[in-house]
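Honest question from a wet-lab person: if I give you the sequences of every part of a complex, can you actually get the arrangement of the whole thing, not just the pieces? Trying it with mine:
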Amino acid sequence: MYKFLDPADIRRLKNYEFGAKAMVEGYLSGRHRSRQRGSSIEFHEFRQYTPGDDLARVDWRVFARNDKLFLRTFEQETNLECHVFLDCSASMGFPERSARLSKLEYASFFAAALAWWVISKNDRVSLTLFDHGIRKFLPPGSTRKHLHEILSTLEHNTPGSGTSIAETLARALPLLKRKGTLVILSDFFEDPATLFKALNPYIHRGFRIHLFHILDPGEIQLEDRGLSRFIDMESDANLTVHPHALRESWHREILDHTRSLRALAAARHADYALTATTDPYFTLFDRMRD
Amino acid sequence: MSLLLQHPALFGLLALACLPVLVHLLSRARPPAYRFSNIDFLRRVMRRTARIRRPKDWLLLALRTVALLALAAAFISPFLVSKDAALPGEKTTVILLVDRSASMVAREGAGSRFETACAKATRYLEASRPSAANLIWIDAEPDAAFLEPGPNLDFLTDLLKQAEPRPEPGALAAAFDLALRQLAQASGRRELVILSDFQATAWRNFAPKLPPNVTVRTERIASSAPPNLAVTSLIPQPTEPVSGQDLTVLARVRNFSADPVRTQLTLDADGARQSQAIDLPAWGEAEAAFTLRPASAAPLPLTVRTEADAFPMDDSRHAVVRVRDSLQLALDLPADAPEARLLGKIADVLPWLEISAPSAATRPPDLRFVSPWNGENPAALRKSALSGCTLIVRPAASCPTAALQTLLGLPSAPEGANPTLETSPTGWPVAPEESHSAIHLFRTGDFGNPFAGTFRERLRLARSLSEIAGARPIASYADGTPALIEFPTSAAPILLWNLPLDPAKTDWPTQGVFLPAIAEILLRTRPLGSADSSQVLPGSPLVWTSADSSHNGAVTLLGPENKPVGLTESTTPDGTLWQARQPATPGLHRWQISGQTIDFVAVNFPESESDLRPLAESPAFGKKVSGTDSLARQAALSQGLPLWPWLAAAALAFLALESLIHSRTHKDARLKT
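Yes, you can. This is the full assembly:
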């Protein structure tokens, strides 16, 4: 039994499958088509020869009939490579001592289910735990052993210190050999422009990106706790405020922030979704299937 | 203004104001800790909302602080004292000048101006509690409550409560003179407090000199003027008609409002009524003429009324016309003169004309015919004209021009030589001057020339006599020689007669127009008379004297609406004198002996009081007047105004406001949660 993998969730995920969005590159034959032309068995189309094409791929029968050079192209079936980036900064430990799941626990549940699901489809999944930098990187794998390693890593993971997604993405780029699906689970208390500046290399390399913004309901709408001394979970800085006086402004600020993230994501053809830790994470799978 | 503290020992209570600040600081010191995901983000939000949020906190803190400060200050019992306030132990003398003239009857709001003035004067006395005070009424005859300012303030307040306004003008100069004389005798601080509507017509040009050591306080009672219609004059013409003669009554009505008005004017002549509708422009006046013909020789009371308005005192005006049964014509000519015989016959024919010898008459005659006048005693003759007797003078040929100059009151002798007698066998025709009222009847020509016939003897008088300023020719000979000229005087006119009446020298008396012409000349040139003899100003005493001892105990006086007026009876060298106990009020009063009316007295509302418009500002009297604050406030400040009730109320108000803001803030927070 793994802490973050519920058998009920596994039963439900068995019927899930990536859709058109998931047409990504892999090196194992699988159920996912790739536009990368290859020499697999499934014919795709004829294409007129252009200088520089591999002469080995010329269909000489067609040439014999028409006296024109045509190439035969085939679609290559490849496996999915999914890279999961899990924010393990201290802020993801919010809320502490609460009946609700912390953001890290919620993200871990989702990451575990996603890893199981990808591996169950014979695809490959990698896991990157980060806070202000990469804390742990598990390279892509599709074996049971790899899944066990991912689940064990998630179980023993604890919130770390401050966050720097940009730094993490910059460092992780050389580690990801092949393009695939990039899933980032974070509370994204970061400047959206900086975040997407760091994502640009991934986008240019053809990664399909999912940004899953995980917030506690108490962060979406500040709880009225009376005058309180707010202590930063990452920096231990404190601030004494009346939450009720800031509730409206905070909510407006969060909405502005998410609106900004969504707009930048849409401009770069990336997927963005905000989810509360009280919502079921299957909605995120739904987004990945579309 | 000065601030005095009644309990300065409690000054330390002001430190209570620090309490909310301390509570605020202490409550901020140890709030519960709450580990939160991102303070930087929260801090950024806080920076943006600080401008909105902080004032609310500071407002609550400020309200709590100010409320406690006000509460603590209330315990110290501060007093606000005027800079003009008397020093402790200093004597203060106050003279209240309260206007009770007719304009103070006007109503503004719930009460009249006078009621407001009395109420404010009472409040001022009660608030200021001066060492000595006196009350002087501004009316026709100002008088004081005390001979000198006294300490009995209760008596003055009783007087103010019982007083009534008077329908009479206010004698401002007399009232101020009385007040300043009393203040001059007083020691210590001296105050003159004037409560009036400051009616513009009365106060505009009034500028008394006030001593510098007298503090003047004014309270303007009136703020606006209600629309008012007033009958401002009533003139009967003639004032003493003979019975059967047409009497014209001219009534002038004035509109004291900014809107044009149409009103009904009614004349009541001893029960006989006539009415006319008149249109009055805004702030304008109109005149209406009523014509009536009194049948009997008796005093005829006249009353003209407009429709009732908000200020009814001046809606009517009264006059008394003494209708005569005849005019007295005194003949100052030889008894055997042909003119005497002719005039005697005329008097026999005309029922309203009686011949009387100058010496035998009990009263001065209305007309006096002097012929021929050789120039003797011109001054005495003129004096009789000035005393109200129309003088008809036919100069003799020997009359010098200097005598004529004196008689007519001319600044220089008429041009030309002395009058000379001239005759003509054929005679000279005489033509009337149609512009003169004596010729009014003949103006249409239906009755022919009033001076028909020929005149064979005349005096050669200078033509320039007709051109003298004020001279009004009645008839002239064809060559321009004056035949009959009227020279008006202040009382009765002097007629220069140059028409022979001797039948041997003229055939005019045989003409059919002779009698009406003579009658018209005598009627139209009779003395003007005056209706003032029956007029008494409001506020004046009503007096009747009689030398007949049989009247004792039988004389009564009925006031307006036939209400009996109390009389005092006293004996004087001229006989018994009856005087009304109350001053005259507007309306018709009638003196009666044994129930029979023997005379009327008309008392009319003073015209100057009808314009109710006040001055734009209270008069300053050439010095700084404390008129901006109400009298009660000034009095309270001079005594020291305790501020603790205000401070306590302010503290409660601040606390209520604080709790309101606080509860609303929390309510909003709960709703959002």
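Two things worth pointing out. The radius of gyration of chain A is 23 Å. Chain A touches chain B through 36 residues (CB under 8 Å).
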